[in-house]
Design goal:
27% strand, 6 helices, alpha+beta, Alpha-Beta Plaits, 257 residues
């Protein structure tokens, strides 16, 4: 039994972020965290607070998002409550719960994550089925140049130039583990995985890589931008509609035996 008769759980979900001001609760805004806390609290009849793997901005989607919460309900009671099924009946159609499982008392959805991954989707032609799901960019771009420039990210660890200004972080170091483009039908999709991300980082990286594709800057200039550590030198932050949080990875030691 865990300390103070509380049990910690990880909950895995996905959401279409179009209607929301991101994951994190904000005043006077509809957010995913708030709707989920209210739904779990109602089903379990206890006040539940969620901690997510990270914040997402307005309009950003999540394919697999992880959050944790503490409950007085034991795993057996929670299974009996059929929480996943009940939450999916209560929550709106654009939020889906995939899984729920007990974890160690000190497991943390944010701080226990060993890596996170994102995708950014660019639609290369007008497509009514990609509205709010990808960024429409029809201008001529050099795919090969963007692919080569994305490899430059492995050469650096300080990404202050891609961080939202005035964020309260102790440092700007991130270890990029994966960064590349692929083509899928009419979409160009950028995949990036790292041990941590700065606020707005992925959207700023994609904006800068797009500048490379458009011929506004070359690979050498992108290096200079990263080394300048100056946000105003990097490309603009591309729209949130094309960004997908693909998931966070955790060590298996967080699971209960």
């Amino acid at each position: 039994m865990q300390e103070h008769n509380h049990y910690r759980y990880f909950i895995e979900l996905g959401f279409d972020g179009t209607a929301y001001h991101g994951w994190q609760i904000q005043p006077n805004a509809v957010c995913v965290q708030q709707l989920l806390e209210e739904a779990i609290s109602m089903v379990l009849r206890e006040k539940i607070s969620l901690t997510g793997a990270g914040r997402t901005d307005t309009g950003v989607h999540a394919k697999k998002y992880t959050a944790h919460f503490d409950s007085l309900h034991s795993p057996a009671l929670l299974q009996e409550a059929d929480l996943v099924y009940k939450l999916n009946r209560i929550l709106p159609a654009d939020i889906a719960i995939y899984d729920l499982f007990p974890v160690q008392a000190d497991a943390h959805a944010r701080y226990s994550a060993i890596s996170r991954s994102y995708e950014y989707r660019i639609s290369r032609r007008k497509d009514p089925f990609l509205i709010n799901k990808a960024w429409l960019q029809e201008r001529e771009m050099d795919f090969g140049a963007m692919q080569e420039a994305s490899a430059l990210l492995f050469e650096y660890e300080d990404f202050e130039c891609f961080s939202k200004s005035n964020t309260q972080v102790k440092h700007y170091r991130c270890k990029i583990e994966e960064a590349h483009w692929r083509k899928e039908d009419c979409q160009w999709i950028f995949t990036i995985r790292a041990n941590r991300f700065l606020r707005n980082m992925v959207r700023a990286i994609v904006g800068t890589l797009t500048d490379v594709g458009l011929g506004k800057i070359n690979a050498e200039q992108m290096k200079q931008i990263i080394e300048s550590k100056n946000r105003s030198n990097a490309g603009y932050s591309v729209p949130g509609c094309g960004l997908y949080f693909m998931g966070a990875a955790y060590d298996k030691s967080i699971l209960l035996p």
